[in-house]
Amino acid sequence: MRLVLATANPHKALELAAILDGFEVVPRPTDLPEVEETDATLEGNALLKARAVRAATGEASVADDTGLEVAALGGAPGVYSARYAGPGATYADNMAALLDALERAGAREPARRRARFRTVGVVAFPGGEELVAEGRVDGTIAAEPRGEAGFGYDPLFVPDGGDGRTFAEMTGEEKQAVSHRARAFTALAAALAGRAAT
């Protein structure tokens, strides 16, 4: 089965291609403009992106939207995770903004820095059928960035059930074993396989 990626983020594209091993995953066409993420939910934004690429290519499209939800910040940054520090923000800008917000909220001890990553993955088929799956992982926001791997907030996120390392201190395989994105797309891959078998 051929799936066109809706993401233009090279780090995310690599992760998705690895998780969807067994499917023909092709890059998003370079001439497609970015899709405005105007929905208030992760699922809504993922669907916007998948539908736009499906409409442009006429092929099945796969997309996701991911948010980091921090309890002490009322669930922020949430759907604004990629642009928390403003338009054009870098990963470092967003992490600095998050740490600053936690400091201003007085959330200094680990118990006050609880968070979860949520990913909603979708596949939009040319006939109009759509598959949706969600993955989540709970954890804690570290006091400072640690690690060189991963992307986004990975240097700050310490998943529960691990050995205290951030996602950025893990290998790709270690992260995929527990990550929100892997959980969402593993579920999607299973749904795709079931669909293909019918």
Short note summarizing the structure:
This protein has 198 residues and is α/β, with parallel strands linked by helices. It has five helices and seven strands.
- Helix/strand order, N-terminal first: EHEHEEHEEEHH
Percent helix among the residues?
25-40%
Please work out how many helical segments DSSP would assign: 5
> Low-confidence stretches at least 5 residues in length (pLDDT < 50)?
none
Name a few traits of the molecule.
about 200 residues, alpha/beta, Maf protein, seven-stranded mixed β-sheet, 5 helices, about 35% helix, globular
Would you kindly provide a written description of the structure presented here, covering whatever features stand out?
This protein is α/β, with parallel strands linked by helices. It has one domain: Maf protein (Alpha-Beta Complex). 33% of the residues lie in helices and 23% in strands. It has five helices and seven strands. Strands 1, 2, 3, 4, 5, 6 and 7 form a seven-stranded mixed β-sheet that branches. Strand 3 and strand 4 form a beta hairpin. Helix 4 crosses helix 5. The chain is globular. The chain starts with a strand and ends with a helix.
Could you outline the blueprint of secondary structure elements for this entry?
Elements: E1 2-5, H1 10-19, E2 24-26, H2 42-57, E3 61-70, E4 77-78, H3 91-104, E5 114-124, E6 130-141, E7 157-159, H4 172-178, H5 180-197
Parallel strand pairs: 1-2, 1-3
Antiparallel strand pairs: 3-4, 3-5, 5-6, 6-7
Helix pairs in contact: 4-5
